[in-house]
């Protein structure tokens, strides 16, 4: 069930981010979608995924350190956003604990990376 929901969320994310002509050419592939595909959590995961990938699409500077940190801030924020979806919709206590741990760790790392960027012209 987890894999099916994950694949459904990824499918929605891909469709949301695809140009209209690509969506039309793939309509037939998604006719057998289930109710789980439209679940609020699936929509929230897809939105977080699209936002993360958009934010990771940075203008590269040629400085690998700066480019890495700027990309990773967006990547970590995506992890936080997805963990919050889990906390809002998830039921499994072990996974909810994982989501809480991810939020705590990723927020700390984002703070560190933003401080590093401020001191390194990023």
Fold and architecture overview:
The protein is built from five helices and no strands. The chain is mainly α. It has a domain of 80 residues. The longest helix has 27 residues. It is flat and about 40 Å long. The termini are far apart. About 22% of the residues have low confidence. Keywords: Signal. It comes from Sinorhizobium americanum.
Q: Care to give the gist of this entry?
A:
This protein has 122 residues and is an all-alpha fold. It has helices at 2-17, 20-25, 40-56, 64-89, 93-119.
Helix content: over 70%
Question: What is the H/E order?
Answer: HHHHH
Strand residues, percent: under 5%
Low-pLDDT residue spans = 6-32
What gyration radius follows from the Cα positions, in whole Å? 17 Å
Derived structural class: mainly alpha
Secondary structure elements and pairings:
Blueprint: H1 2-17, H2 20-25, H3 40-56, H4 64-89, H5 93-119
Signal peptide: 1-22
Organism: Sinorhizobium americanum
Protein name: DUF305 family protein family protein
Features:
122 residues, 0% strand, mainly alpha
């Amino acid at each position: 069930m987890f894999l099916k929901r994950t694949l459904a969320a990824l499918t929605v994310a891909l469709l949301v981010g695809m140009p209209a002509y690509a969506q039309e050419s793939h309509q037939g592939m998604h006719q057998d979608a289930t109710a789980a595909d439209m679940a609020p959590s699936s929509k929230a995961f897809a939105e977080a995924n699209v936002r993360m990938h958009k934010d990771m699409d940075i203008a590269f500077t040629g400085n690998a350190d700066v480019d890495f940190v700027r990309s990773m801030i967006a990547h970590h924020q995506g992890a936080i956003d997805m963990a919050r979806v889990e906390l809002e919709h998830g039921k499994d206590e072990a996974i909810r604990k994982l989501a809480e741990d991810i939020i705590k760790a990723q927020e700390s790392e984002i703070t560190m990376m933003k401080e590093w960027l401020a001191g390194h012209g990023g």
